[in-house]
Write a structure and sequence with these properties.
179 residues; mainly alpha; Rna Polymerase Sigma Factor, Chain: A; Arc Repressor Mutant, subunit A; 2 domains; transcription regulation; RNA_pol_sigma_r2; RNA polymerase sigma-70 factor (ECF subfamily); RNA_pol_sigma70_r4_t2
């Protein structure tokens, strides 16, 4: 979905257009579920966290002044709902990449079928969870640096440095493990 199209849909939803709201919901449902799942939620908790985030968004959408922040706000809300659920359930958080085997989360099909994808996933599992989150949002969700900063509640400069560090670590890990 193009940014201009999303902006128009958000503005329409803010004015009570149910069709626009439903379209946004359907468009973001799977990416948000996958993100919640990658944050360590099981399937049911991921579903619940996404639903809670949408309920929160539905209640406060009319207050959103910058419609361009919609996507970032959604991912941030899901992240906080997952963290709340972990905290309230006293469950330890699971590293982000423990669920990278999920085929719906497959990195690009540009990787050949000889195990390169599994190799990449194994290497990613060795990165800190916060770096994995930044990589996921940047490459798989194609979010901008500023959007990721909002979603992860850190400055944009921090996201840039995390992405750079994660790329360098991933490169080293892949080179070390290939030998």
């Amino acid at each position: 979905m193009q940014q201009a199209e999303e902006d128009l849909l958000v503005m329409a939803a803010q004015q009570g257009n149910e069709a626009a709201f439903n379209y946004l919901f359907r468009h973001y449902l799977q990416p948000l579920r996958r993100f919640a799942y990658k944050l360590g939620a099981d399937n049911d908790s991921a579903q619940d966290a996404v639903q809670e985030a949408w309920i929160l968004m539905a209640k406060s959408l009319h207050k959103m002044q910058d419609v361009r922040a919609f996507r970032s706000w959604l991912f941030r809300a899901v992240r906080w709902k997952v963290l709340e659920r972990h905290k309230s359930a006293s469950l330890p958080t699971v590293p982000l990449d423990d669920h990278m085997h999920d085929e719906s989360m497959a990195v690009d099909a540009n990787l050949d079928g000889d195990g390169s994808q599994n190799f990449l996933h194994r290497c990613m599992q060795q990165l800190p969870a916060i770096d994995q989150q930044a990589l996921y949002l940047f490459y798989l969700q194609e979010m901008q640096i500023t959007e990721i900063a909002i979603a992860l509640d850190v400055p944009a400069g921090t996201i840039k440095s995390r992405l750079h560090r994660a790329r360098m670590q991933l490169k080293c890990l892949m080179n070390d493990n290939e030998e």
